[in-house]
Fold this protein.
Amino acid sequence: DLSRSDPRISNNLRELQSWNVGLSVDDFHFAEVSLRNLDKRGLRFLKLSPKITQDLDQLPIRQLVKGGLLAAEAAGARVVFKGLENQGLLDLAMQTGGVWGQGHALCPPVTWPEIEGLLSSRRPLAR
């Protein structure tokens, strides 16, 4: 829980960062954590909940996400739009200012042998 100020949490996070471990908040909802805490915790990625991504067609949600993007970027975190399952959601995420994403619109699921083959050949994923 990032909203708590337990010094043990901060110490553990700093130690992980010293090992060059990238930290992220997965399935972020606006009510869950203060964006101010991102800077204090040194998080690299803020992964938006697919529920938020699916509601990007609503102007108030898009405006909240745009503000969240600015705050997260100011804190040094990158925002990942999760749940980009079709071209429409991908377009909305890009129009909102998103540059990081995950979902079927970007790449369908792949098997472990396919991943190993891609990594060993170092060729990009086909779209």
In short: The longest helix spans residues 59-74. Helices lie at 7-18, 36-41, 50-54, 59-74, 87-96, 112-121. Residues 56 and 62 are 5 Å apart (CA to CA).
